[in-house]
Specification:
This protein is of the alpha+beta class. The protein has helices at about 1-35, 40-45, 95-105, 145-150, 190-195, 240-245, 275-280; strands spanning about 55-60, 65-70, 115-120, 125-130, 135-140, 160-170, 185-190, 210-215, 220-225, 230-235, 255-265, 270-275, 295-300, 325-329. The chain folds into 3 domains: about 45-120, wza like fold (2-Layer Sandwich), CATH 3.30.1950; about 125-215, Roll (Outer membrane lipoprotein wza fold like), CATH 3.10.560; about 220-300, Outer membrane lipoprotein wza fold like (Roll), CATH 3.10.560.
């Protein structure tokens, strides 16, 4: 009986040990695969891109060394003794070194080739535009997510609509290729609400060449007898009372019964005259404004204009090529 118990215990220990080694083996294999493939952005950073300065070193010789960049088709130009064009776009340094060594082995005896990316500053920059405090360009050299990019810009402004778009050209990064010869450009639509709530899908990795735009809300113009005539962003359902409050409220000279809303839509211009007293007393529903409405609060001693006022949107136009470039390393 004791021997049976002993063998059962031994069998149990052996089975557990086998299971542990199996788990370790699988874990080790996964670690090996991760080490080979790497994280998405780490792999992306170590692959050769357009604009990279590449150095090809033949160990023990300088006669065949080469330094340059990819041509527009993604090949290494200048390796004159290569029997076939060597495609380098989105390849690893080791893969290109192996291909060069293979082709040169017909001329050289067991060539040792080392390929290095010595400068990544020529890669396509990432643009951050729209309702952020500092629009700028970024030279992305490590993994960076949308949330960090917005923080580096100083954050979003009050004009943000709540939507973020990311335009990703198909030929400026290696994630889009994935075995596709002619990758297509894609546009992602995200919301700031999901980003701020911690939704990981709303906080993607930003790649070289991405154009990130924090969409600005359409404006509503509040002028006349208000304390701070201004443009109010119509992020959500914006009512007349809220728009006037956002403009600092009414002045002492304001005529509450004479508020004019000018609107232009597909059917032509429209004009609404609203009495704020009736809205406050619940005798009339608060008017819901639409983008580009002009709210003019009447003022004592001034005649009501016959025509809609002319509004200068004063949009700021910036030369994208003059935006500062900030490295992310």
């Amino acid at each position: 009986m004791k021997s049976e118990s002993f063998f059962r215990a031994a069998s149990t220990i052996l089975a557990q040990t086998t299971l542990i080694f199996t788990i370790l083996a699988v874990s080790g294999s996964c670690s090996f695969l991760r080490a080979q493939t790497g994280d998405t952005q780490i792999s992306e950073n170590n692959l050769i891109h357009y604009g990279d300065l590449i150095d090809v070193d033949f160990v023990g010789s300088v006669e065949y060394d080469w330094r340059g960049s990819l041509n527009p088709e993604g090949f290494l130009d200048g390796l004159e003794l290569a029997t076939e064009p060597i495609f380098g776009l989105c390849k690893t340094e080791d893969a290109i070194a192996a291909e060069i060594a293979k082709q040169y082995s017909r001329l050289l005896r067991d060539p040792k080739v080392v390929v290095k990316i010595i400068d990544r500053s020529g890669r396509a920059v990432t643009l951050l535009l729209g309702a952020v405090k500092n629009q700028q360009r970024f030279s992305v050299k490590r993994e960076v997510h949308l949330r960090e990019l917005l923080a580096l810009s100083g954050g979003i402004t009050d004009a943000a609509s709540g939507e973020v778009t990311i335009f990703r050209p198909g030929n400026l990064n290696c994630q889009q290729k994935d075995g596709v010869d002619d990758p297509k450009s894609v546009t992602m639509h995200l919301t700031l609400a999901k980003l701020l709530s911690g939704d990981p899908e709303a906080n993607p990795v930003i790649l070289s060449g991405d154009i990130v735009t924090v969409v600005e809300a359409s404006p509503v113009y509040v002028i006349g007898a208000v304390n701070n005539p201004r443009t109010v962003s119509s992020k959500e359902e914006l009512t007349l009372s809220h728009a006037i409050a956002a403009a600092g409220g009414l002045t002492k000279e304001a005529v509450e019964s004479d508020v004019t809303v000018y609107r232009r839509d597909d059917k032509g211009p429209k004009t609404f005259t609203v009495d704020l007293n009736r809205i406050q007393s619940k005798q009339q529903d608060d008017l819901v404004l639409k983008p580009f409405d002009i709210v003019n609060v009447g003022q004592k001693g001034r005649a009501k204009p016959k025509f809609p006022p002319m509004i200068d949107p004063a949009t700021e136009k910036r030369n994208l090529y003059k935006l500062p470039i900030r490295p992310i390393e």
